[in-house]
């Protein structure tokens, strides 16, 4: 199921610089969430497993089943929305997992995703939005007029945007030291630009729902793209500094505005 990945020279250089103790593994099968039994197979390739858990009272009663399971004591790695490359500190040493779905993707883009995971590990951000929001996830749930799955998507997006505020200065500074990865980061941003500029109009016309729009806007934050209202308020030092409390206030104001 898991096999050490041969890293390109640019990615190996990033690992040596930012996360030299991290193992990068290819996964033979694709997944959204590794069930506990399969996740524990990692015990064969790491020194130790340290499952994370979160208090049940951080979750609303109607939280998605997968989120409730993730909060429990079983070893669970990866969640819906995590993308093609995931990382975890629930193992010793920490690991980056490259999902089978990356097959056929441009090599430069996959290299950037792995490098991004290594930088996030170095930044010591939480592994999942539940570790970011903690009990304020209840306040976020109360602030939105969304079903549990859409609230989950918005929370994951807001967390992704906050992480992007931590990492994008690193990527922007790679022009000389890691030029191939800088180019891949910039290219990924260029591909988002046209879609991002029209998201507010798309939501107003009913062509895009709010959760999808938030996911797109927050993905753009890591590339420093200009965002339309109300998402521009997330690309601020205030959000970087105040995190979950700011995100909840943003959601409250945004949904109050949408209701008018």
From TrEMBL:
<protein>
    <submittedName>
        <fullName>Uncharacterized protein</fullName>
    </submittedName>
</protein>
<dbReference type="Pfam" id="PF23363">
    <property type="entry name" value="DUF7089"/>
</dbReference>
<dbReference type="InterPro" id="IPR055515">
    <property type="entry name" value="DUF7089"/>
</dbReference>
């Amino acid at each position: 199921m898991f096999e050490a990945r041969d890293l390109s020279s640019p990615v190996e250089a990033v690992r040596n610089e930012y996360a030299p103790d991290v193992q990068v593994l290819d996964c033979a099968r694709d997944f959204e969430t590794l069930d506990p039994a399969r996740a524990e197979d990692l015990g064969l390739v790491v020194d130790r497993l340290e499952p994370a858990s979160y208090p049940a009272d951080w979750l609303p009663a109607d939280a998605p089943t997968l989120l409730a399971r993730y909060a429990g004591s079983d070893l669970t790695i990866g969640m819906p929305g995590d993308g093609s490359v995931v990382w975890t500190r629930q193992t010793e040493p920490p690991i980056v997992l490259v999902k089978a779905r990356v097959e056929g993707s441009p090599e430069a883009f996959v290299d950037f995703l792995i490098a991004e995971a290594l930088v996030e590990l170095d930044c010591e951000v939480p592994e999942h939005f539940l570790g970011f929001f903690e009990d304020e996830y209840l306040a976020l749930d109360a602030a939105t007029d969304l079903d549990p799955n859409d609230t989950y998507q918005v929370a994951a997006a807001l967390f992704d945007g906050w992480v992007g505020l931590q990492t994008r200065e690193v990527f922007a500074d790679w022009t000389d030291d890691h030029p191939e990865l800088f180019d891949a980061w910039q290219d990924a941003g260029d591909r988002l630009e046209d879609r991002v500029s029209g998201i507010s109009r798309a939501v107003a016309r009913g062509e895009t729902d709010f959760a999808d729009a938030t996911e797109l806007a927050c993905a753009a934050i890591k590339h420093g793209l200009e965002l339309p209202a109300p998402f521009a308020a997330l690309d601020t030092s205030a959000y970087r500094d105040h995190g979950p409390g700011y995100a909840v206030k943003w959601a409250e104001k945004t949904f109050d505005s949408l209701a008018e």
